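Fold this: ADAMTS-like protein 2-like
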Amino acid sequence: NTLDDQDRYIQPGNQNQDGYEQPPPVLDNQVPVPQTPQQHHEYNWKMSGMTDCSASCGRGSRYTVFLCIHKVTLQPVTESLCDSARRPSSTEEPCNTEPCPAFWDIGEWSECSRTCGPGHQQRQVLCRQVYANRTLNVHISRCRHLERPETMSTCQLKICSEWQIRTEWSACSVPCGVGQRSREVRCVSNVGDIVADEDCNMKMRPSDLENCDMGPCTKSWFFTDWGSQCSMECGPGHQQRDVVCLMKTEEGFSVVPPYECSSLERPPSQQSCQLKACGARWYHTDWS
């Protein structure tokens, strides 16, 4: 071997024409390897344990954890002091592989079967179990330890209301000719309560008033309403009304003698009444 001017050996084959050492040639497509800093030799990667399991049941995963430590003191240091290229790859292993308890998976309620009034709605209830980060449908027997939620329920969005004819047509307002008759029509809810007419479809409202034709007027009995007073303050009494025989003429109606209507049944002009029962009371005479 030959020494250079600084007393260093020159390896054969690495000398130039003057006898000095030259660096090895670098190929065009070769990247020079950086030199590892001296500090990396003082630290090393060491496995310190495992991560927590990713699931408490149903098969999870956990991974190895590596820390950068000082080779002499074995104390953890910042990871930047270790060579990242030499850091071992984390390995995965299964954990908590026992099955998770089954549970009832409850879906949303469907729309009510009716837009008003009592109806019903349904929902889907499935027995499910988690395994390997997947939720699986299982037989309902696995959920037997749990009370099964209801799958059907009653519902009512609002009260249904409809028109009801409450009475028959009344008598015609006139004994002859064209008059009117009426009946009671009310809007009734599905629970039987009378509600405002606006709660029912006004376009579907039955008529509560119509004309009636009693035939041509000639002679007929006409009568007034019953008087509001009873003849007795208590106990049986009577009420009266006027009953007259009228005949239609070109000028209108005129009163004629009762016998003119004798062929027609005469309406009663008197009826019984009782405001209240009579109790015992004191009566007295004048002073002598």
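The radius of gyration is 56 Å. Confidence is low (pLDDT under 50) at residues 1-23.
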